[in-house]
Specification:
- The chain contains 11 helices and 10 strands.
- β1 and β2 form a beta hairpin.
- α1 runs parallel beside α2.
- It folds into 2 domains: 136 residues, Nucleotidyltransferase, domain 5, CATH 3.30.420; 126 residues, ATPase, nucleotide binding domain (Nucleotidyltransferase, domain 5, 2-Layer Sandwich), CATH 3.30.420.40.
- The protein has a 5-stranded mixed beta sheet with strand order 3-2-1-4-5. A 5-stranded mixed beta sheet has the order 8-7-6-9-10, with helices on both faces.
- Helices cover 41% and strands 20% of the residues.
- The longest helix is centred in the last third of the chain and has 21 residues.
- The protein is α/β, with parallel strands linked by helices.
């Protein structure tokens, strides 16, 4: 642990498929700049575009601050394994060198960043559910096991994609038994722009890119009928099972992250109830990922990491 350098800055980035966010702070936790750009997940975007978005967010966050004053930089990224790809690595090094940072950049998974955005503890479980779903076991601020995150075709149980698919399946089952089409099932047909008819619904659902079924998730989380309640409950059970597989031991914290798992979100509430029924400790909710990444960047530099975490993330 080093004495605090009042001139030292840290840079944290949280890069996903739809947005790239960056934050610059000093070692007291004072936020000096933030930046945002389009998605930079290299598994979702061409390498030059992905790297350009990351760098754009970083430049915006740095503003007029001297990049040479940055003593720590952590890049949390969905698709972090792409850093091992020589072609992507070359694009990254070329673009990143133009930033002029005074330190190396440490790439970590978005799960590690989300976990750090929820707790300063070095060990525990993070569960992320948005368009997809994944859990990670974190030890010493590094991923040691990953559960799920297989993508829509192979898994992502409990994700927004899964919710949307289950909504279509529930509607098809209702049509098959001649049930009244109302509530969730009526909303599904309306969203897809089809009459409540089997062939029309199947055709419309399959005409889109499969991942776009995630757009139906809000229909599930806002409907108040038995079909929606059943889907939400099953999602909570599946997500809890995913987290349980990644859990290192019962005493470690659990951090929830992603658009579906906020404390005011219906799936998030159902999941918290499921975890309580399993006698788990109350889960923590991740704060902003870029702030979690900045805290990780400051970790080897800060004389009081816990106080810094409280300042940056509350």
């Amino acid at each position: 642990m080093h004495g605090e350098d009042p001139t030292a800055l840290v840079l944290g980035l949280d890069v996903g498929g739809t947005s790239s966010r960056a934050l610059v702070s000093d070692l007291s936790g004072r936020v000096l700049g933030v930046g945002e750009a389009a998605g930079g997940n290299p598994n979702s975007h061409p390498a030059p575009d992905a790297v350009a978005q990351m760098a754009g967010a970083a430049r915006q966050a740095l503003g007029t601050h001297d990049p040479a004053a940055v003593r720590g930089c952590v890049l949390g990224m969905a698709g972090v394994s792409k850093m091992a790809d020589p072609a992507f690595g070359e694009f990254f090094r070329d673009e990143w060198s133009r930033l002029g940072l005074g330190c190396e950049t440490t790439p970590v998974s978005d799960g590690v960043v989300a976990f750090a955005a929820g707790t300063p503890e070095p060990k525990g479980t993070v569960l992320i559910a948005g368009t997809g779903a994944v859990a990670e076991r974190v030890e010493e601020h590094r991923t040691t096991a990953t559960v799920g995150g297989w993508g829509w075709l192979l898994g992502d149980e409990g994700s927004a994609y899964w919710l949307g698919r289950e909504a279509v399946r529930a509607t098809l089952r209702a049509l098959a038994r001649g049930a009244v089409i109302e509530g969730l099932t009526e909303s599904v047909c309306a969203h897809l722009g089809v009459p409540p008819e089997r062939k029309a619904l199947i055709t419309a659902a399959n005409a889109r890119e499969p991942i776009r079924l995630a757009e139906l998730a809000p229909l599930v989380t806002t409907a108040e009928d038995d079909a929606a309640e059943d889907i939400v409950h099953r999602a909570a059970v599946l997500l809890a099972d995913t987290a349980a597989t990644a859990r290192p031991d019962p005493s470690c914290p659990v951090v929830l992250a992603g658009g579906l798992l906020g404390p005011d979100e219906r799936v998030g509430q159902a999941l918290r109830a499921e975890l309580e029924a399993r006698s788990w400790p109350e889960p923590l909710t991740a704060g902003p990922g870029a702030a979690g990444a900045a805290w990780l960047a400051a970790l080897p530099l800060s004389p009081d990491p816990n106080a810094l975490h409280k300042t940056l993330l509350g």
